[in-house]
């Protein structure tokens, strides 16, 4: 029996809803065909946005959306994507699949999508190949309220009112596709570019995100923070609100990656082990951030995370289209538990990517759409958004097929929402063993229990032919005990229990 100990009186930190954020890039069928089909499409849409996709995304309460990239961001020139569509520049998307980008989805369309989703906006600017003036004018175009060349241009293009930019990324992966910069060079560029990401509207602040490290490049974190803050430590807040981190799980390494659907138990545990590495990354990058920012005012922004496999057979290798199984559901569940537990430092995270790319929550094929196992995890975990993390721990044992990739059998996190409801999420990483769990809820007064489960054989997935193979079910296996509740979690499963 695994004991889950919860201290309802020990509130740790607020779980920012943005931890459940998403990422959309001009890549493959993420934007075109996935989110946006255009006003004239026979696929049901509102102002060009797919109705089925928007409705599904509203259900999981997408809190924030990052756009337009990714690597695409540092090649994107925003003026190509405004004005009458027939006049917009056509170009080749050199990064992703060599297809024609007709710029029919641009700034206005992005804000319209976020309006329909009811989510916050995260724009990623171009530092790698764009100018300071270009970045500065984009911010002016989006947010300036008075009379100015860019505000006038926005009005001429049909949007009199300024929009609200919640987050602005000053470059993306500038250690790689965003310009191959050294950390001190980037940090100085960051200092310069961010100066012109102005808060035009009184009382409103654009949170500025500095490009952080690739995986475990701790030198990048150290150097960027050193260069940024040596010269103006007093300007800490406002100068940098967030520092990003990118980490993808490639089960068989960057070169081979591995199939999304065909894997054995050994690869399953390898995938889990690599997903759990997120915890070490947050701790170690966080320790460096603590040196410069002991009060944790700067958020760690994990704005790209998820599984990255070999593309589905027969699809464009540059489109990064992959299927999604119970393995992805488990990766999502344990990663979100990790983010919850580090919500004192992690202020936003964006799954890569929202539709049809990498670990997508939705897949589309023409007018058809399916929800992936990962989608269902986000749906079960949405109750953690803006709730308070509670101190909790669970007894675990190490499991795996051999000594190489041993992982703890269980993962959990617990929060208390604003209505006083306790939300417990537990994941069982085993391919074949169920575990009984006894949860001690401390002095928590709640007595009404409801629970849901996502469970299946490790390879289970949803397809366009069988869209409901993996779905959330009510779980009636939770029993009240003297100190709390007990239940048995089946192999390869994720459970959400609400107690009020
Ligand atoms: O998400 C796909 C790509 O991965 C992004 O464009 C880039 O930032 C990262 O390398």
UniProtKB/TrEMBL annotation:
Pathway(s) this gene product operates in, as recorded in its UniProt entry: Glycan metabolism
Domain of life: Bacteria
Reaction(s) catalysed by this chain's protein: Hydrolysis of terminal non-reducing alpha-L-arabinofuranoside residues in alpha-L-arabinosides
Annotated InterPro entries: Alpha-L-AF_C, ASD1_cat, GH, Glyco_hydro_b
Biological processes annotated in GO: L-arabinose metabolic process; polysaccharide catabolic process
Keywords, sorted A to Z: Carbohydrate metabolism, Glycosidase, Hydrolase
Sequence ranges assigned to domain Alpha-L-arabinofuranosidase C-terminal in this UniProt record: 303-493
EC number of this enzyme: 3.2.1.55
GO molecular function: alpha-L-arabinofuranosidase activity
Signal sequence, start to end: none
Name of one Pfam family that matches: ASD1_dom
UniProt similarity note: Belongs to the glycosyl hydrolase 51 family.
Subunit composition and interactions: Homohexamer; trimer of dimers.
Protein name: non-reducing end alpha-L-arabinofuranosidase
């Amino acid at each position: 029996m695994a004991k889950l100990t919860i201290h309802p009186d020990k509130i740790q930190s607020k779980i920012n809803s943005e931890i459940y954020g998403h990422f959309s890039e001009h890549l493959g069928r993420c934007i075109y065909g996935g989110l946006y089909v255009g006003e004239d499409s026979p696929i049901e849409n509102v102002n060009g946005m797919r109705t089925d996709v928007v409705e599904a995304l509203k259900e999981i309460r997408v809190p924030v959306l990052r756009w337009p990239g990714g690597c695409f961001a540092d090649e994107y020139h925003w003026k190509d994507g405004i004005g009458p569509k027939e006049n917009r520049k056509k170009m080749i998307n050199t990064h992703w699949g060599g297809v024609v980008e007709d710029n029919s989805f641009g700034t206005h369309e992005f804000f319209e999508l976020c309006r329909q989703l009811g989510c916050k906006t995260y724009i990623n600017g171009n530092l790698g190949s764009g100018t300071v003036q270009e970045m500065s004018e984009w911010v002016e175009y989006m947010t300036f309220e008075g009379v100015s060349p860019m505000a006038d241009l926005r009005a001429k293009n049909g949007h009199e009112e300024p929009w609200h930019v919640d987050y602005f990324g000053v470059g993306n992966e500038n250690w790689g596709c965003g310009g191959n910069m050294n950390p001190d060079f980037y940090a100085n560029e960051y200092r310069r570019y961010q100066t012109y990401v102005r808060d035009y509207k009184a009382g409103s602040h654009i949170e500025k995100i500095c490009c952080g490290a690739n995986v475990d490049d701790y030198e990048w974190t150290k150097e960027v923070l050193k260069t940024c803050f040596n010269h103006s430590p007093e300007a800490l807040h406002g100068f940098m609100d967030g520092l990003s981190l990118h980490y993808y799980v490639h089960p068989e390494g960057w070169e081979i990656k591995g199939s999304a659907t065909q894997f054995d138990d050994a690869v399953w545990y390898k995938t889990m082990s690599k997903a759990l590495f997120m915890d070490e990354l947050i701790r170690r990058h966080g320790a460096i951030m603590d040196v410069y920012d002991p009060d944790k005012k700067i958020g760690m922004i994990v704005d790209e995370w998820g599984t990255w496999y070999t593309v589905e057979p027969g699809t464009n290798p540059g489109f990064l289209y992959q299927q999604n199984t119970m393995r992805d559901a488990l990766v999502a569940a344990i990663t979100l538990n990790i983010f919850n537990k580090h919500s004192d430092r992690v202020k936003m995270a964006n799954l890569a990517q929202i539709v049809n790319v990498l670990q997508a929550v939705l897949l589309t094929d023409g007018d058809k759409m399916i929800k992936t196992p990962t989608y269902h995890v986000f749906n079960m975990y949405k109750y953690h958004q803006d709730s308070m993390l509670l101190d909790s721990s669970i007894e675990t044992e190490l499991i795996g097929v051999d000594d190489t990739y041993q992982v703890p059998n269980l993962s959990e996190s617990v929060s208390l929402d604003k209505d006083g409801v306790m939300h417990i999420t537990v994941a069982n990483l085993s391919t074949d063993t169920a575990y009984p769990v006894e949860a001690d809820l401390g002095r928590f007064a709640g007595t009404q229990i409801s629970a849901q489960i996502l469970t299946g054989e490790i390879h289970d997935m949803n397809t366009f032919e069988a869209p409901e193979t993996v779905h959330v079910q009510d779980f009636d296996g939770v029993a009240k005990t003297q100190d709390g509740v007990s239940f048995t979690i089946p192999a390869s499963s994720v459970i959400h229990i609400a107690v009020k």
